[in-house]
Structures are given as structure tokens and as C-alpha cells.
Amino acid sequence: MSTPHDIAIIGGGNAALCAAITAAEAGARVLILETAPKAYRGGNSRHTRNFRCMHSGPLGPLVESYSEEEYFADLMKVTAGKTDEALARLAIRSSEECLPWMEAHGVRFQPSLSGTLSLARTNAFFMGGGKSLVNAYFRTAQALGVEVLYEAAVTHLELADDQIAWVDYTHEGESHRITPKAVIVASGGFQADTEWLTRAWGEPAKNFLIRGTPYNRGVVLADLLDQGALSVGDPTQCHAVAIDGRAPKFDGGIVTRLDCVPFSIVVNKNAERFYDEGEDVWPKRYAIWGRLVAAQPDQVGYVIIDSRSLNLFMPSVFPPLKADTLEDLATQMGLPPAKLRETVEGFNAACGDTSGFHPTELDGVATQGLTPPKTNWARPITTPPFYGYSLRTGVTFTYLGLKVDETAQCATENGPIRNLWAAGETMAGSILGQGYLAGYGMTIGTVFGRIAGREAAAYAN
Amino acid sequence: MQTDLITELRRQSEICNACRYCEGYCSVFPALHRERAFAEGDLTQLANLCHNCRGCYYACQYTAPHEFDLNLPKALAEVRRDSWESFAWPAPAARAFQSHGLAIAAATVLGFALLFAAIKALGNAGGEGFYAALSHNAMVAIFAPAFLFPLASIAFSLRAYWRHVGGKRLRLSHVTAAFGSVARMRDLAAGHGEGCNFEEEDRFSHARRYAHQAVMYGFLLCFASTASGTVLHYGFGLHAPYPFFSLPKLLGVPGGLMLTFGTIAMAWLKLKADKNLADAKAFGGEMGFIALLGFVAASGLALYWLGGTAAMATVLALHLGAVLAFFLLTPFSKMAHGFYRLAALIREEQNKQA
Ligand SMILES: Cc1cc2nc3c(=O)[nH]c(=O)nc-3n(C[C@H](O)[C@H](O)[C@H](O)COP(=O)(O)OP(=O)(O)OC[C@H]3O[C@@H](n4cnc5c(N)ncnc54)[C@H](O)[C@@H]3O)c2cc1C
Ligand code: SF4
Ligand code: SF4
Fold this sequence. Notes:
Chain A is of the alpha/beta class. Helix content of chain A is about 30%, strand content about 20%. Chain B is mainly α.
């Protein structure tokens, strides 16, 4: 079957939509193939909350300024240097013009918010969150004549020499083949394919929870890698956080996060502590706990707090387990009761003067002579009722992806693939080798989505 | 109140409290985020702050088929209706009318019948104009109680509401701030001022806000028109019918037009909106009420145009019958929402200033 469309875009998240809008505005006839049904359109993007944006003065909802150097330095901190500097700087520099572009295409931001002041300078929050962003983009795209096909799963891109010859997808139980002039891949990572995750990570990955969409299964990524497309990133690298252990296997999204770790002790299923819970405030150390929990037996952790700490963190979506004695709590959580008491008493005995306790800053209230230590907020756990949460590893997205250049173009060893571009999570590994900076995922998707849309339209026209 | 509705709203509110993405849409969310645990009164208060604009539904990543199955506009609407039913006094009347368009229609017919009967029984009242059909004294005898009863009933209901939500003593600043948000219908503009998501999925539009403004201001103008007529009648001995350049007409004609078109627009929007995001049980009652309100306005205008003709007595009976039904139904129909919403906004100001 031939097609009236110039460009086929695979995926229906932020990156895909930014590409579609840009290409349509450049006059190209665009088709979006989104594997999810309409209710689940928008992939992981519908779970997002904010966009990290450079700005040289107040911009939209952002206060003061946030320079390229500071932004880049923040990125280097979390990635420990595993970053393609040229691409990272391109994303950072372009983010400033993205914000007005986003507003012009229907995205609305929250005015600077209560409670998130530390982010009011660096991150712009979407009013209503990522789903409202995705909704606005779909409306804008459709008004520009972009056609959207839901429940259209792309199964294969045929790479012939240096170009994509055709695209295969299934829709309503039937297979289709189209031959667009250009193709943009924006179909996310492979984290929802547990088998692939297990191949990369080993058996523990079976116990991981997937924070986002069940539809990002890396089908197109695997297909292209098999045909020799160049890749970046390490299959064992992904962004993972410790989330509520009771979260659904897929798509639990933001609400499954737990902010209570700094005020707690965290033990494994043997009721032993394994890491400094007070290393830093939770949002900053949030990401490392995904890996810490993944390394524990059965990939679970248990957070223990007492009633004094219950109101110090953001409300959780599932209520904590509650008991009047530590033994009772241990029984409810399936932990060895005597051992839990021993661990808590050992911890309590190591706590010193707690008069400097200050929940919102690094207070230096630390344990003495305990391994591992707790270096901040170390306050004895003594006041019943006691509360407990379980923790599991929640994967946000994987980093193995397609290698792209500054024009978002994909390549094989023999050079660029003439009509193939990639944007968003599927190429984020080109920039982020490790770690994650809040709001940077949307930056990469917006910047490279727009670049891919522009380049593909220029090629197709 | 119904515990299953309360339990469901509590479940959803706890999810929203962990999420907070909708913080900027309306006054429900800042109020919600102030709590960690939700008592029944808290949830009733939240429910009465909601305008059913649906912004939070279309922005939500947890709506069905997601297992969290969020539908906050619906959960709030159900608790809201249930709360009005349980606060209304006398209670059985409320249960009948909130959810039943048919009961509203029946009450209206009864109103007509009463008026016709009165007109027939009293014969020519001997007065001029309208009063030839029904004497002024007879009108007052019928309408004064019909006006005072709803006021008393609503006062009882609001007192029950106020206790339930833990309201404190009123201060002027609470009240003025609350009136400020009503006057602009700020919450119907969604946090970014582009209106609500009522009639076409996630599209933002001001249609509902404007229709509602037309109804509200139209109603207030009509009410002012009637009040000015009363003042002219008793204070200045000037009796109806009034010429076009008189206060009752200058207020009443534009008011009637706004009310007529506003109610038509509201009914049309309601038909287009997804019923699954509202309280399905209230649909018939709300439609019945809108139709009645629209009829009050349209028949009032008709009375003006046909006042000098032979049709006058019939139109008068229809109009006054509708007005009568409208007044009597006020505490038990959607009309009551205005009072509850005002109370909720005042309470919200108290919470904010606390
Ligand atoms: C809970 C959560 C919160 C987050 N919060 C933030 C945040 O606040 N800020 C931030 O910057 N980042 C955040 N992220 C990361 C962010 O979601 C991603 O970086 C970003 O959404 C990636 O966008 P994308 O368009 O590349 O992929 P997605 O939005 O995931 O879109 C991929 C699309 O491709 C479709 N697809 C997959 N396979 C196929 C196929 N074979 N055929 C057709 N279609 C296919 C999927 O259905 C999906 O719609 C968060 C992630 C999660 C999970
Ligand atoms: S309605 Fe949905 S998106 Fe909005 S705050 Fe609640 S859970 Fe979050
Ligand atoms: S429906 Fe509108 S008014 Fe009601 S809670 Fe949601 S956003 Fe607020």
C-alpha cells in the first residue's frame, strides 16, 4: 500500500508530538502511529510534571535565571560525566526557546507553586501535568492536519541500504505497509518488556515495577538495532527509583513515590539496614534508592518510621501499615520481629543529641558508631504507633537507544540513514549515559522532537 | 449521608493528594492539599467547591481504564447532591426533587393549576391590567408565603451545612472575597483562564461560563425588576403594567432575555457533555430545573408582549404558576447550589485566612 503521507512518526508522546507539529507547520503531511488506545496515548509523557529550562531572565513561570553553565553543571553532577557534551549543550541551549514555543502550541504552566520553591527557578510545571500537555499537543497537531492512528503498533522498519524503505504496522487486527518519505522514531525505551529487562539486568529485573506506560516495549528499537542502526547507552542503565512496593506493575506514575526515607530507617527482608537513609533530601537521593533496593534480596526494602515523622513528608497514595509495637509491625510486613527490634534498638542507641533536628534541611543530626551510619535526621524511632512502607525498584526508562547526531538523524556504521530521525527517550541515551536530572527528559524530547520534525520535513518537501 | 459515596471520594482525594498535578485548576485542589486525612465534613466542603468543569478529569493520567479509576468530577458531584439532599429541610421534598425532572414538572403543573383555579374562583378581580385577572392582594397572598418558605428552608439547610463543615463566625472579608469569585466565576475559567472542558472532551471553552453568567445575572436582573415593581407599588403608588422606560422593564427585559438564552445554552451544553463525568442521578432534575427557569423567563417576556391582548390571562397564569413553582422548589432544586456554593466559598476563605 502506498501512502499520502510524507512523514510517519512512531509514537504518540511528547517527542512525537513536537516533531509532528513542527513538520506539519513546515508543510509536510504527517501520520502519527501510536500503539496505545486513545485513553493511554501519550506514553510516559502523560505522567510527567515539569520541564527543565535554561533562561537568562524571568521566563514564563520561571523566576530569576538559570544559565547554560549551571544547567550543564547540574547534569554533570547526576551523570558523573557520562554525557555527550555537544548534544547535552544543544538540548540545554535550545530549551530556552522551547518554553514560549510550548505555550504557543497550547501548553499551560502553573504559576510558581507553593512547596516547590527550590524548583521554581529551574523547572516549569505543566498545569494539570503531562496529560494536559499531551492533550494540548494532540489538538494542535490535529488542527494542523496531522493524522493520528491509535492502536497502530509498528512492527518493522525496513532498512535498505541507507534508507527506510517501508514501515509495517498492525491496526485493528490487520497488517499494513506504508512507504513514507521520512520516518521519525519516538517510541520510548524498552522498560515495559520485562524479558528484555531481565536479559539486561538478570533475574532481579522480574521484580521491578514499571512506573510508566506498558506500551514502551522497545519493538522498533530492537528492530533497528538488529538491522545495524548504531546504538548508545548501556542496556543495564536505566532511571530507577524506589517506589511504594504496593504500586501496580505498570503505569503507577507519580503517586507511587515515597518521600519518607530521610526520616526513617530502611531495612531489607532480613530486617537489616543497608544504606545511609539520611544522605540527602529525598528528591536528590531518590534515584539511588532504586538501585539500592534492587541489590537487596527479593528486591524489596522496608521503611520504618514512628508517629513523630508521619506528617513530615508528602502524603502517600497507599496508607502505611500501622502497629503499636515494632513486633506487630514486623509481623504485618513479613519481617523477623526479634531482628527488627534489635536493628531499631541498635539504631536508637546510636542516635545522639537530636535538638538540632530540622526536617527541611541537612541538619547534621547523625548517628555515632553505627554502620551504615545515618548522617542527617537521625532521631530514635520510639513513639508508637509505628508505621511501615515497603519499597520496590520502579523503572522510569531505559537508556539503551539509537545514536543520533545534532540533527537527530540516525546512522549505521556506513553513515547516516538518509530518512530516519529519532527523538525522546528512544535516543536519550545519546545524552544521558547515567543518572537523571528532573525535567530533563521533557527537555530532550521537546528539543530533539522539534529538530527531527524540522529535518524530516526539509527532507520530505 | 451515603457512606459509599464518601468512601469513594475519600479514596480519590487521597490519590490526588499524592499527585497534585491539578493544583492550579480550581479552588478544590488547594483545599484538598491542606488536609492529610479527610473527614466527612472536609469531603462535603470539597464537593461544594467543585464546578464540574472537568478540567481535572481530562488532565488525569489515572482515569479508567487505569486501575485507579479516577473520576473526580463525578465523585464530587455525587457527594454534592447527596449532601444537599441530607441538609435540605424538609428532607423528603429534597430527595424527591434533586434527582427527578418529573417531580419538578409535576410541581410546576400544580402551580399552574393553583393559579388558574384562583383566577377562576375570584372572577374578575376588578383591577386594571394584570390585576383584572388576579387582584394584587390575591397575588401577595399566594406569593408572600411562597417566597418566605424557601428562604426559611434554605436558612435551615445552610445552617446544617455550616455545622457539618465546621464553619466559624463570619467576617466581612470572608464574604467579600467569596462574592468576588462568584462574580467572575473564576473557577469556571480553569486556572489558566481559558474556560472549562465541558462540551467537547479536553477542548477548553468559555461557553459554559458565559451561559452560566447569563443565567445568573439574568436571574438577578429579573429579581431586581420584581423588587423594583414592589417598591413602586407600595412606595409610590405606581401600579403595573409599567411602560418600557421604567425600572421594572429596563431591568426585566434584558434580564429575561439573558435568562432565556442562558438557560437554552446551558441545556444544550449539558446535552453535549459526557454524562459519565457528572452525577447521573441528577441529570433529570437539573434539566427539569433549567427548563422551568427558562420557562419563567420566556413566559415573563411573553407576558410583556401579550399584556394588552386577550391571551393575557392565560399567559399570566402560566408565568405566575411557573414563578410559584420555581420559588417553592428553590431549596430542593439545582437553584440551591448557588447558596451552598457561596457558603463553601466563604468557608474556603476562612480556611485560607486561618
Ligand atoms: C512517572 C514518571 C514521571 C516523570 N516525570 C518527568 C518529569 O516531570 N519531567 C521530565 O522531564 N520527565 C519525566 N519523566 C520522564 C519522561 O516521561 C520521558 O523522558 C518522556 O516522556 C519521554 O517522551 P517520549 O515522547 O520519548 O516517550 P513517551 O512519552 O513514552 O512516548 C512513547 C510513545 O511511543 C508509543 N510506542 C511505543 N512502541 C510503539 C510501537 N511499536 N508502535 C507505535 N507506537 C509505539 C507509546 O505508546 C508511547 O505513546 C517521567 C517519567 C515517568 C514514568
Ligand atoms: S485528578 Fe488525577 S492528575 Fe489531577 S491531581 Fe488527581 S490524580 Fe492527579
Ligand atoms: S471538575 Fe473542575 S471544579 Fe471540579 S474539581 Fe475538577 S477542576 Fe475543580
